[in-house]
Amino acid sequence: MIYNDFRSKVTPSLADILSLGGRIVSGSWPFPEVADAREIKVHVMGTATTDMLLRCVAVACAQEGLRPKVSQSLYGAFMQDVLNPASELYSIKPDIVLIVSDWHSLVADIPPSASNDEVALIVDAKVSEILSIWKRLTETLGVKIVHQFPPPPPYRLTGLAEKFLPVSYSNQLRSLFEKLWNAETYGVQMLDLEQFALENGSKSTFAPRVWYGAKLPIENSGLPGYVPLLRSALRGALNTVKKALVLDLDNTLWGGVIGDDGVDGIKLGTSDARSEAFSAFQAYVKSLAARGVILAVCSKNDPEIAKLGFAHIASILKYEDFAAFECSWGDKASGLRKIAKNLNIGLDSLVFVDDNPVECGLVQQELPMVATVHLDGDPADFVTKIEDGYWFQFQKYSREDFSRTGAYSARAAALVEQSSATDLPTYLKGLEMVGMVLRPEENQIERVVQLGQKTNQFNLLTRRYDEETIRAYLANEENIVFACSLKDKFGDHGLVSVLIGEAKGKELRIVEWVMSCRVFSRTFEQFIINEVIAASVARGITKIVGSYQATAKNAVVSELYAQLGFVLVDENLWELDLTQSPAAVETFVALASS
Amino acid sequence: MSVAPDRIRKRLARVFMIMFPAKSGEEIPEATMENTDGWDSLATLSLFTLTDEEFGIKLGLDLIGETKSFHKLEALVIEKVG
To answer: Which residues of chain A have pLDDT under 70?
Structure first.
């Protein structure tokens, strides 16, 4: 695909995201004509499956003229990566981190009878946790942060009453968002997907089936509309925001051609639907100007005649509203260059809108850094066409920009200082984890088999044992077969790890060890091995042997046995000598009282 | 309205190439998860979305686990529009 054509798309296609995005994610660069594009490292992490968002990040960066190198944290390992200075995140040293939060991770189930103050306390704790993450990432990595917040769940329960119920998920999320917005945000770009859901259709874009099926935060069909939103956040993070809206005149700011129809002949005002739509568009443009967007005109016209349009009795915009007024018969690329020069801003901070596809095409080819929006068809849709690009979305809050009182900020800063989650051990302790290892019951066999079949990352040998094999191991009482469950303060994760050790005389050979990725790096693996050691000693076993078989996806456990105190005795073969009474490895998981 | 099987195959092969551009036209009909680099369950989900768009159908997510080859995907589409 030709780069300029791709870059000029306001909304990329799903095929662009899956195909081009996929190629960029895998490390190739499909645009040889811009081999020297500025490189940028973006890391994506959160409480959802981020693979598809990674492709969106790749496309968004490429459309912004950047050559991205993208990476992601393992599903569910987000907090561990943030808090552990030895995690991959810290070796990658990304320029930008995209944090993706789903609503399940942000709200609490609070009894509906709870008071406003009780709800506020719970929300404040979550605010504090998020601020501490932002603080840590900013201070230790110097990274720019984009944090994506979800829409509330797509059901209304008691309807209107829910809007006024403090404990409702919607109110918790709204309160959280507001408190974070008012806090010192370390320059974080906050993405509000509640508004996105309204605009793109909550039922289709955030259908529960994709969450239950794959923990995807957005349905694939919603990704094209998400890319421009993401681009706006990237611009905010990189300080490359759009500053000026450059408008054509005829059939853009009014209906008709001022040179032919005269000031009384152009369509503006309330006499018909078309005139009303052009007036509404002018009102929208005027509102943008009131929010600090610079307005300019770039039109093929005689300047004196062109100015007459703003003398129309119904014209909301006035000639004085424009900081630059470039009317000539020259090409529009030259006009835009002059405007940028006069305003002393970069061409990449211009958004150019025109009803003429040829003019738009020329600008896209000549000046790909200018965002170009083709306003064709019904003028009633012009506002939406500009809004689709999120060109003037400023998600960044800074005290300089707004004169709000400092009370909230001070309180939020104090909360950060109080926050408990400032290092990994404190965080893990705070999870209040309780583990249980038991020989599986009959009704757990299916889950034991399923874990081995499905788990790719924390799977040391990837042997994919079937039910028959598992039952054969269970048949020998000397073998250790552990079905391991974990609970924490947020809930019960259920059976999330399986370890099978085959006893051969005085030796225990670990033949399967798998763990659901949503719980590893929480010292649950240390907890399990301590239990294995205790059970082995009770059986008179003197040596535990473990091996690791590398696959494309299990590199995360390549050093597991070393971390657990085993000694490498052969290639990928590790041993733990129990005759030396090895000390228990440190874990923050407590044994469940039976 | 039904679509001829050879037309379905051509359109589905186009969809398939978006996800797996390294596959040649000849290889696509025989493609499976086993012989196609990068074909995992998320890729199947993406194939479903693109197929839904191409044919104006809705393939249920419950079918993701069993869709492990081009043939199977083709059979699902034929069932809906063939």
So the answer is: 1, 184-185, 395-423, 594
Question: Which of B45, B55, B61, B62 to probe the A interface (max A CBs under 10 A)?
Answer: B45
Query: What CATH number is given for A3-238 in this structure?
Result: 3.40.50.1110
DSSP assigned state of A150: P
Q: What percent of chain B has pLDDT over 70?
A: 99
Whole-number Å distance between alpha carbons of A114 and A345:
52
Distance in angstroms (rounded) separating the CA atoms of residues A518 and A223: 25
Name the residue ranges covered by the structural domains of chain B: 5-81
Question: With respect to CATH, is domain B5-81 assigned 2.60.40.1500?
Answer: no
Residue A241 three-state SS: coil
pLDDT at A430: 80
What is the DSSP code string of A399-467? TTT----SHHHHHHHHHHHH-S-SSHHHHHHHT-EEEEEEPPPGGGHHHHHHHHHH--SEESS-----H
CA separation, residue A50 to residues A53, A55, A148, A215 (Å) = 5, 9, 12, 9
Interface residues on B facing A, Cβ-Cβ cutoff 8 A = 18-19, 21, 38, 41-42, 45-46, 49-50, 52-53, 61, 64
The CATH number corresponding to A431-591 among 3.40.720.10, 3.40.630.30, 3.30.565.10, 3.90.190.20 equals 3.40.630.30
Tell me where in chain A the CATH 3.40.50.1000 domain(s) lie: 244-387
Q: Which of B18, B52, B64 sits opposite A15 (nearest CB)?
A: B18
Indicate the angle between helix axes A223-238 and A193-200, nearest 10 degrees: 150
Long-range contact set of residues A4-8: C-beta below 8 Å, sequence gap at least 24: A4/A364, A4/A365, A4/A368, A5/A364, A6/A31, A6/A62, A6/A63, A7/A62, A7/A63, A7/A65, A7/A364, A7/A368, A8/A364, A8/A368, A8/A372
pLDDT at A565 (0 to 100): 93
The shortest C-alpha distance from B52 to chain A (Å) reads 10
The topology (CATH level 3) of A244-387 is: Rossmann fold (3.40.50)
Residue A423 has a pLDDT of: 67
Q: Do A19 and B18 touch (CB under 8 A)?
A: yes
The pLDDT value given to residue A211: 87
Supply the ipTM of this predicted assembly.
Answer: 0.76
Question: What is d(CA A497, CA A485) in angstroms, rounded to the nearest whole number?
Answer: 7
Instruction: For residues B37-59, give the mean pLDDT.
Output: 89
Number of Cβ within 10 Å of residue A139's Cβ equals: 10
**Smallest CA–CA distance from B43 into chain A, residue:** A18
For residue A492, report the phi and psi dihedrals to the nearest 5 degrees: -100, 120
Question: CA of A211: which chain B residue's CA is closest?
Answer: B61
pLDDT at A404: 29
Work out the pLDDT band at B77, boundaries 50, 70, 90: very high
In 3D, which of A332, A297, A299 has the Cα closest to residue A317? Answer: A297
Residues present in chain A in total: 594
Instruction: Report percent pLDDT > 90 for chain A.
Output: 63
